[in-house]
Amino acid sequence: MTRTAVLRGIGAMVPPRAVDNDELSALLDTSDEWIRTRTGIRRRHWADPGMATSDLAMVAGERALKSAGGGPVGMVILATSTPNQPMPATAPQVAAGLGLGTVPAYDVTAACAGFVYGLSVAAGAIAARLADRVLVIGADLWSTRLNPDDRATAVIFGDGAGAAVLEAGRESDPGALLGFDLGSDGLHRELARVPGGGSLQLADPDTPFQQSDHYLTMRGKEIFTHAVGRMSESSGRLLKQVGWEARDVDWFAGHQANARILHAVADALDVDRSRVLIHLDRVGNTSAASIPLALTDAAVQGSLRPGQNVLMTAFGGGLSWGSAALNWPDVDVL
Fold first, then answer.
1. What is the pTM of this model?
2. Looking at the structure, do residues 261 and 301 belong to the same domain, yes or no?
């Protein structure tokens, strides 16, 4: 029997500090209206000083494990572009903090597409019998990587984490991940990046952080065009792969970067806008955490119900993108 990854639990976490558009408008040349009309974002959550990506990931992971009814986990995959440090990976620290012992644990870096990439890796590990249950976490803490004077990024990103527990099952099981479509284009890697801190451009201890290249830079208009095109194409291929028509999609769970992007992709797929999950208005762009945060919120609100077909798609720096499809299971969301 072919083993299929099945969703058994989900959890999420955002820091308590909420930062609304008016607060940022007092610091930047912007306004609540400007931010809302261009992005759809009303507020975002930023971590307090001293809080790390691992802290967010552990809370989301713990909630997902409780949602799944507890039990052992054979692997931990953390999708993040803001690890606690360049080395070692943050996933082993998260696994240890959750009391999971010496299970395999590693980071996946695919920017905002990281959670979909993580799901695909987990599904492969389950199919290959490397693990019976896998904890996949998407977590990013971008507030410490944003130039406070850069309106293009400072108003967009928030901090958060979302997690899912996948378990070996059958394709006919509720919650089965039915297919994936992934892609990348490194020729456009400079459209969204953090230039400094890697082997190409090492950190300079004599350069103040405020003047360094450790901030996120992004070319918004070009990113918008690529995001709409790549997510539309990827989603279209996946729909054909799993045998769904647009009318079969009950919920479109796209990466929560910009409401206009989500609506443009839905329009390209002929998916009604009323079936687009929108969570970014309350949390901003939470990068790898955005899809599980949106799914958790929809499940808590009762709009996402067992038996509904969910199409996920994401796009991020790299460039990287990916899509996944599943039939939503009956899960307890904490």
1. 0.94
2. yes
